[in-house]
Amino acid sequence: MQHDNIDFLKDHSLKYIEMALSTDHIEKVAHPDGYGTRTGDCKDTVEIFLTSKNNILKSVSFWVQGCMNTVACCNTLATLCEGKPIEEAWCISPGQITDFLETLSRDHFHCAELAVGALYLALADLKQHC
């Protein structure tokens, strides 16, 4: 194993590593109930796809063109939202994402903000279609 890999494993929590490497929620949905996309100053782009039933978020998926930190934030977002009432999703904050991940560096807090911003746009779109 290279030295960089050892540092990566030492520098990050198990939650961060799981969220950064998980592919469970990575999916472009053809006809979502709600859709939002944002591009950050860092040029990362996040797309959020929501499906709902009876005011519950049945699935939360995303597509990212960006770094592993943004993927970790989007996976955390999906984990925190899926199966919850739509109104609860409006309460998700970037701070909750960083708290969950435990080791997202401060200079990547914008990745959490980007994920949450795309979620809010998807929730607003969902509200328009209900």
Verbal overview:
With 130 residues, the chain is an alpha+beta fold. The protein has a single domain (3-129), classed as Alpha-Beta Complex (Sufe protein. Chain: A). The protein contains 6 helices and 3 strands, in the order H-H-E-E-E-H-H-H-H. It has helices at 3-11, 14-21, 68-81, 86-89, 94-101, 109-129; strands spanning 34-39, 45-53, 56-65. Strands 1-2-3 form a 3-stranded antiparallel β-sheet. It starts with a helix and ends with a helix. The relative contact order is 0.21. The model has no long low-confidence stretch (mean pLDDT 93).
Largest sheet data: 3 strands, antiparallel
Query: Any idea of the CATH topology?
Result: Sufe protein. Chain: A
Q: Count up the domains.
A: 1
Fraction in helix? 40-55%
Low-confidence stretches: none
Q: Work out the number of β strands.
A: 3
Q: CA-to-CA gap between the ends? A: 51 Å
* Outline: globular
Q: What proportion of the residues form beta strands (DSSP E)?
A: 15-25%
Known CATH architecture: Alpha-Beta Complex
Helix vs. strand class: alpha+beta
Tally the helices.
Answer: 6
- Element string (H = helix, E = strand): HHEEEHHHH
What is the topology, as strand order, of the major beta sheet? 1-2-3
Radius of gyration: 14 Å
